[in-house]
Amino acid sequence: MSHSIDPQVTDLTLDFRGFEYIARTATGSSATEALFVLGGSSQDRHSWLRYERWLLPHTTVVTLELPGYGHAAPLPVEYGMDFLADTVRHTTEALGLGRVNVFGACFGAAIALRFAQRHPDHIARLMLGGTATDISPEYTAAAKRWRSMVDDGLFDTMAQDMVEQFMAPPGHGIVRRRAAVARLMRQRFASLTERELAMDITHHERLLSHPWSLPGPTGADSVLVFTGEHDTITPPHVGRGVAETLGARFTTIKDADHLVQIERDGDLADLMARFFTDQPLEDLPYLNPVEDFARVGQGAS
Q: How far apart are CA 119 and CA 84, in angstroms?
């Protein structure tokens, strides 16, 4: 897939409360509302480029490089998910969009959920991947350890440690492309520039300083929560709990862990396209059974 900019793709630099950030818009079909993609802490607006070829036949794709990401302005740790969610809302208005579909993965899922809660009139459908209600003790310890490793200049050690945290350990279950993805992630973490590393560490510290998730309705027409079936950083039972709280559907993708967007990109893109266009999700070969907590969320007996 070509990553070059063509007349249908624009990068727009925006400003929200003094912080510059970038919205990449790839114009596609209008079969459903425009899709906003919010990635994890080490990602930028180019991290999801390969997904456009699968999604553009269904929708316009807006990939955000929010403050604290990529080439956007650094964001001090005291700014939390509320600020980032409000930045997403600012983008919908700057682009002249009404309601939008929103996909959030990992750190991006926390922002996506907060956006849906704070701005319910702006959300159509919401899809959350690798999410939780609270930061686990294991992640808290890892984030503090990574800060210490950075201070000591142990970048290769930190890269290996991060891979071990984000990927399922050997023997935990079959993970597609495991060796290749582990090698790719080690290279990615070890090659972070000083600026990227500082922003990445700030993201981890932001998660320790602000609530990951708050209770409350989303306003979305439908919500889907998912993760890889072998995810160890936000395990399936944790995602299932989020779905139950939100009255959402929940499923896991086979042969994947927390890095499902790399390990099974084509299948995740297919799931996104189906969900955001209201197609059935049952009996897909890459999915485990879909659980529906909608009636629970509506208070039905």
A: 12
Q: Number of helices (H) and strands (E) in the chain: give both, helices first.
A: 11, 9
Residue 286 and residue 277 in contact, taking contact as beta carbons nearer than 8 Å: no
Q: Which CATH number fits domain 9-135+211-297: 3.40.50.2300, 3.30.200.20, 3.40.50.1820, 3.30.565.10?
A: 3.40.50.1820
- Give Cα separations from 209 to 77, 115, 202, 205, 212 (angstroms): 8, 18, 10, 6, 9
pLDDT bucket at 135, cuts 50 / 70 / 90: confident
Digit-coded pLDDT (tens) for 168-202: 998 899 999 999 999 988 888 888 888 888 888 89
Handedness of CA 174, 180, 181, 186 (dihedral sign): positive
Count of CA atoms in the C-beta half-sphere (13 A) of 265: 12
Q: How far apart are CA 127 and CA 138, in angstroms?
A: 25
Render pLDDT for 101-110 as a digit per residue (tens, 0 to 9): 999 999 999 9
- Global pTM? 0.93
